[in-house]
Amino acid sequence: MLIENVTAHLAVLYPDKDIQALTDRCLEAMEIDGSMSLSESDAALWNSDDIVLITYADSIISESRTPLETLKQFVDRHLKEIFSVVHILPFFPYSSDDGFSVIDYSSVNQSHGNWGQLEAVGEHFKIMGDLVLNHCSTRSLWFENFKKGRDPGKDFFITVAPGAAIDQVVRPRTSELLRPTRTDLGEVLVWCTFSHDQVDLNFKNPMVLLEFLKIIHGYLERGISWFRLDAVGFVWKELGTSCINLPKTHTIIKLIRLLIENKSKKSVVITETNIPNIENLSYFGDQDEAHLIYNFSLPPLLLNTLITGDYSQLKRWIMTMPSARRGTAYFNFLASHDGIGLRPVEGLLSATELKKLTDTMVRFGGRLSYRATQASDQQPYEINISLWDALAGTVEQGKDKYQFHRFICAHAILLALEGIPAIYVHSLVATENDLSRVENTGNLRSINRHVWGQEQLESHLANRDSRHSRVLTRLLALIRVRKKQKAFHPNATMLTLHLRPGLFGFWRQSLDRGQNIFAVFNVTNETRTLDMGNLNLTIDQTWIDLVEGAIVTDRSGPLELEPYRFLWIGNDV
Predict the structure, then answer these.
(1) Which of 164, 214, 496, 503 gets the highest tally of CB atoms within 10 A of its CB?
(2) What confidence category does residue 22 fall into, taking pLDDT thresholds of 50, 70 and 90?
């Protein structure tokens, strides 16, 4: 059955190739026994204990240890038994884009450490690694070989003739799509979706697929069990199309997942597709594609909610989102190494709402990056800002005294939603905009890629009055509460509550229907009154304010909620 499924996918991708021979080579690359039966997906790949930390290997550095050793020391000291997964952003040798222009997929960047040190981080955590499929560095051996007409690499990249039909290609950047490149056979035009240092790989050549299967196998051997497929929506190109989300892109993901889960039943595949919401949902496939998809619409919608006090668009979006089916889940986040993407709110926020959002972020020290469109103009692509600064105030009143409360409220919503929550290391310690790093690198995303000296950071965390310590302490306390609740399982039922203006809320119910949690959030900078009678707190249960640990005694009267105060009210189980 496994062989038949692999063969079927390969036949779609490479109909003119020797499919049987290619099937054998795929199984060989992954060291999978072709005689084995198809493995069933493990329904227990995650639970309410799963919280993901997003970090670079060198987000925290010290003079006496490598970044990977320093990272291990930090997560072991502060996050052990609280977070379960550490996503270490690209740790390979690279030439640009803070790791996403990969020179060598088989090595750890020497400035970060070595494979043994990376594996050591996995002593107490599952490790998520990036599979940068769409492109690699111009300094990679593959691209050097391409220019010389040698293997491996000779046919690994996409070239097109002058005047090729590329006018419909969807772009995430404003740079020219095609890069003139001198080779031993003359000048050619090479496809570059992201930058001229990031040359797109040609998956129409099955040798490219086979190389990545070998890379995947190597990562599995090194203890990486969660795979983030970076920019995967762009991997298959057809001239005359948008070259994004094409059917064969989905086939490649299905094939990769099939082989990964038959090699390692505890592995998870995550697709990173920063695109409009309905397109993003397609990456679940028929429960045979991504295990997890990034919930890209959440960050801009939640940010818009908290700076306007108007949750209508967030609520409307949540009400229309399908529950993730068995074996799949949403990957929820508010901030990451990238900016806050704006394509995911196309059709969700009006032009006026989007303008208010972006203008406010610029007032709070943020920057905007742009993408080229088919109309040859430029549209805002993402907001570059630290989450701490993004939540500094409101649209109407600017910066105010509620930054901390607004920030914690945002994460309380994140932790309560259906799905697996992920928190960026710089949100965890309330890092502010790093404008000097932007000036040094010329990269707007550097604003949210600060590099902490370990001694300085630990000093801040030791000071209980610092915002860094206050945020970390509060977030870890919330996570500890969350992990104990069966109703916060990533796949537990979620239904939206209909409450008074300014009060956003939803109901969660555990898979066994034993626990119910009513999560209510005042998303405004004004005190709001909650009618407790609207929460259906049944008389046969003891109800507890899970955050405060107090029994709820008044189930029907009014309750005053101060600005950005929130409640997780659950029955005692």
Answers:
(1) 503
(2) very high
The three-state DSSP-derived secondary structure of 173-233 is CCCCCEEEEEECCEEEEEECCCECCEEEECCCCHHHHHHHHHHHHHHHHCCEEEEEEECHH
State how far the alpha carbon of 138 is from the alpha carbons of 143, 144, 198, 215, 305, in Å: 6, 7, 6, 19, 42
- Residue whose tokens read 């995550």: 270
The CATH number of the domain where 499 resides is what?
A: 2.60.40.1180
Burial of 58-89, coded b for 16+ CB within 10 Å and e otherwise, reads bbbbbeeebbbbbbbbbbeebbeebbbbbbbb
Expressed in angstroms, the distance from the first to the final Cα of the chain is 43
- Total count of domains within the chain: 2
- CA-CA distances (angstroms) from residue 109 to 106, 384, 448? 10, 26, 21
Token pair of 378 as six digits: 């430029």
Mean pLDDT to the nearest integer, 11-26: 98
The letter for the amino acid at 561 is L
Q: Is 538 inside any structural domain?
A: yes
Instruction: Give 488's contacts (C-beta < 8 A, 6+ positions apart).
Output: 48, 415, 416, 482, 508, 517
* Position 573 confidence tier, pLDDT thresholds 50, 70, 90: confident
* Dihedral angle over CA of 91, 92, 95, 96, nearest 10: -30
Nearest Cα neighbor of 354 from 394, 382, 392 is: 382
pTM: 0.97
Q: Is residue 503 part of a domain?
A: yes
CA distances from 195 to 89, 132, 204 (A): 19, 14, 21
Q: What is the rounded average pLDDT of the residues 381-408?
A: 98
| 230 included as an active-site residue | yes
- Among the listed residues 230, 338, 389, 434, the single catalytic one is 230
Tokens of 126: 């599952």
In a domain, 145, yes or no: yes
Q: Are 288 and 300 in contact (CB under 8 A)?
A: no
Shortest CA distance to 474 belongs to which of 507, 520, 427?
427
Burial (0-12, 13-18, 19+ Cβ within 10 Å), 380:
middle
